[in-house]
Amino acid sequence: MKQTVASLGGDEMEAIGNIINNIAVTHENNGDYRDEEGFLVCGKCHTRKESDIEVSKDWKANGIWRVATPCECRKKEIEAKEKAEERRKFLQEFERIQKNGITDPQYLQFKFENDDMQNAKVSKVCRNYVDEWETMKAENMGILFSGTVGTGKSFYACCIANALIENLVPVCVTNFPRILNKLQGLGQDKQAFIDKLQRYSLLVIDDLGVERDTSYSSEQIFNVIDTRTRSNKPTIITTNLTIQEMEKTTDMQYRRIYDRVLEMCPIRLVMTGQSRRNQNAAEKREKALSLLQGNSDE
Ligand SMILES: [Zn+2]
Questions:
Q1: How far is the CA of 41 from the centre of ligand 1 (A)?
Q2: What's the CA-to-centroid distance between 44 and ligand 1, angstroms?
Q3: 119 and 50: one domain?
Q4: How far is the CA of 45 from the centre of ligand 1 (A)?
Q5: Separation between Cα atoms, residue 269 and residue 171, nearest integer Å
Q6: What pLDDT, on a 0 to 100 scale, did the predictor assign at position 74?
Q7: How many structural domains is the chain composed of?
Q8: Are the CB atoms for 240 and 207 separated by under 8 Å?
Q9: pTM above 0.85?
Q10: Which domain holds residue 143?
Q11: In this structure, what CATH number is given to the domain that contains residue 139?
């Protein structure tokens, strides 16, 4: 039985819809010509700009309708346009997530591409964490980076954050001084802000333990950490404290906080080595000296 327009299925109707849409954009250009069967051929890519579709004989006497279809170069043009549009949408979404999640410009600089590989082991774990993100997320696996100042804790935590944002994962990087500051100005809306932090697929809290030690702040920190624990979403925390210090805290308020942190962060990365900050400072000092001394020689 011959197919008629009336008996066409959804896919075919869609195909016809596409063809009809293309009629509007396909037109004869200089250099186009007709082949021996009378089809219009593109003068640039030499493929047909028309094709025949079968239609009801009630509609067309010969049962054939010749319609405009994109030639190969036009198809490529359409594809490129679609790709550009996809890219534009991606960038828009990427920028939205980045702006929303990382407000400190310093954190944006910490990326795997800037990794000096001084700590290859940690670097590998962090890269794998990004690759295995779906599992890490499903299993609610957080990371605790501990170690002294300048060993790269924030750097690697942010490398993970930035890499995941590039995959359009909603991530927030913040720290408690910032959170506490924000909470102080919020009055009644404190809980709404704390709840908002739970919407991020990954929360990175930098430098736990540097905030001022007051019962107000420890209560708010507990509230944030506890709410996050219950969200069942992973959290990455960096701290100057050692795991022993966290485990042995006698302050009951902090004990509750650290218990939650250790529970949330089964992956523990102890960062050792020379302080990068000192190293950077030394490098800067040397550079400045050689520059200044060099200048004074002239
Ligand atoms: Zn063409």
A1: 8
A2: 5
A3: no
A4: 4
A5: 20
A6: 93
A7: 2
A8: yes
A9: no
A10: 102-275
A11: 3.40.50.300
